[in-house]
Design brief:
With about 375 residues, the chain is an alpha/beta fold. The chain is built from 16 helices and eleven strands. Helix 4 links the parallel strand 2 and strand 3. The two termini are about 20 Å apart. It binds adenosine-5'-diphosphate (ADP).
Length: about 375
């Protein structure tokens, strides 16, 4: 992911910073049985893996979609662990040419799991190679250039591809269709995040009270990565300013300092919301216009701030642009204008908003995000 969305200054960014990557290794659940939440995905996946193990064959390719920080990488690692197979990790932006991918695929051992993060960003020529590899376990190695170039087919070991994407709507249908199992990871409930925070506190040796865990969970915008990060920031606060024990009061004081409000909104979220409400009268407004108004990249607003604002019922994505819901005015402690009700009239209700988040329109069709601009 590019842009300032990975800004370590932003304590509620769902993207991993260097600090997160170091700690996350220790906090990641290693087996399906250790995963908290995502019950349906966990159950479906366990059937897919169990079935494959019984047949003694590599399972279907798996596509995991959902906002950052919800556990896509964790699930990929768990799939390899459950299968007892080695794992090869790469990412879409790292695969610029078909040769980059051929180099990985041609050296696989039987049953290996290949994880491609941000798979929607794989370069086009490599994507073609991927289709053939996924379907026939074959790659065409091109020798020479121009009219004299020849493609030599090369058999590769049967493998399982695990693709992860934050933008399922951007995946070409031809690629999406080649995955035998697709799972959408959803935001977590505060209770589940409470369990995650308590587990992490145990692993990190943090003294955490029940009410402290609940306070952190409630401000973690449904995202385990953020919950774990807030726990670390609150622990610092407790150790430096208190007696090292994370209580509700301590968590509140710490998160106030980091400008994370009770609903988990931070400065960027509030900037987006107040631009939408105050400068554009509640919308509809295009994504790029909104991004310019808050001085951020469109991708940051779209991937980092927006899914949570939509989920919190403060904003909706409509075919005409982004709109604020009446709750947005209330959140900013402003009177709701009478004409804000139009947002409901054009169908920007919670159901519609939920489908947008999953990259689906009301008819269930996926669409390109640019449709909204
Ligand atoms: P993504 O790949 O979707 O960005 P990750 O798999 O890297 O997210 O998850 C981020 C962190 O959140 C992990 O290191 C892990 O500690 C934590 N995490 C994610 N999902 C869960 C879960 N279901 N239970 C416990 N911890 C989780």
């Amino acid at each position: 992911m590019t842009g300032s969305s990975g800004d370590p200054e932003r304590v509620v960014s769902a993207l991993a910073d260097a600090d997160d990557r170091i700690v996350e290794g220790a906090l990641r659940p290693k087996r399906l049985s250790e995963v908290i939440g995502q019950d349906r995905v966990r159950e479906q996946l366990s059937l897919v893996l169990e079935g494959a193990l019984r047949r003694g064959r590599a399972p279907d390719h798996v596509l995991l979609s959902g906002p950052p920080g919800l556990g896509k990488t964790t699930f990929a690692m768990i799939i390899a662990a459950e299968l007892g197979a080695p794992l090869r990790i790469t990412s879409g932006p790292a695969i610029e040419r078909a040769g980059d991918l051929a180099a990985i695929l041609s050296t696989l051992t039987v049953g290996e799991v290949v994880f491609i993060d941000e798979i929607h960003r794989v370069a086009r020529p490599a994507e073609e190679l991927l289709y053939l590899a996924m379907e026939d376990f074959r790659v065409d190695v091109v020798i020479g250039k121009g009219p004299g170039a020849t493609a030599i087919p090369l058999d590769i070991a049967p493998f399982t591809l695990v693709g992860a994407t934050t933008r399922a709507g951007l995946l070409p249908a031809a690629l999406r269709d080649r995955f035998g199992f697709t799972a959408h990871l959803d935001f977590y409930e505060p209770e589940e995040l409470g369990v995650i925070v308590r587990r992490s506190a145990g692993l990190l040796g943090v003294a955490l009270r029940e009410d402290g865990a609940d306070e952190i969970a409630g401000r973690s915008r449904g995202t385990p990565r953020i919950a774990n990060r807030l726990l670390r920031r609150v622990r610092d606060f407790a150790e430096v300013r208190g007696d090292g024990v994370v209580t509700r009061d301590c968590a509140r004081a710490a998160l106030e300092l980091y400008e994370v409000d009770e609903s988990g909104l931070d400065r960027l979220d509030r900037a987006v919301l107040s631009a939408l409400v105050c400068r554009f009268g509640g919308g509809p407004v295009g994504l790029s216009t909104l991004a310019v108004a808050v001085g951020e990249e469109a991708e940051t607003v779209e991937v980092v701030a927006e899914p949570f604002l939509v989920r919190a019922g403060l904003m909706a994505r409509t075919p005409r642009g982004r709109v604020a819901t009446p709750a947005a005015w209330q959140h900013l402690e402003l009177p709701v204008p009478r004409d804000a009700a139009w947002a409901r009239q054009i169908g920007a209700g919670p159901d519609w908003a939920g489908q947008q988040e999953a990259g689906q329109d009301a008819a269930g069709e996926s669409h390109d995000a640019t449709l909204f601009d």
